[in-house]
Amino acid sequence: MKKMHAQCLCGTTQFEVNLANYQVHVCHCSLCRRQSSGLLMTIDVKPESLVFLKQDQLGVFKSSEWGERGFCKQCGTTLFWRMHDHSYCNINVFALDELPKELSLDMEIYIDNKPDFYSLNQPTKKLTEAEVVAMFNP
Hints:
metal-binding, mainly beta, zinc
């Protein structure tokens, strides 16, 4: 897959990535909902391919024992979530300058944290909080 350009809302933080696949994931955890004012849609990237072109305003927040969140300190755009050891990384799919036509909604995580007032009508794989935690913190 080709290298793709992505950026925050104001353009102050810019980066390039290689997508790992075309599968979009939705996170319903309380942190993502608070950070994004809703669900967060991400796509997996090859961790070593995340290269910042402009990063003066890049902020990184340690959000758990194993993960951290990247954001633009200028405009507040959510940019990525990755493991502290950088072995896994996903990005806000809407940070991409161009969305590939091949994208598909694949999975919802922290499904047991999802509030009842919304739902997605597409069939997806669904993982609970315990299943996600077991994946990232064996």
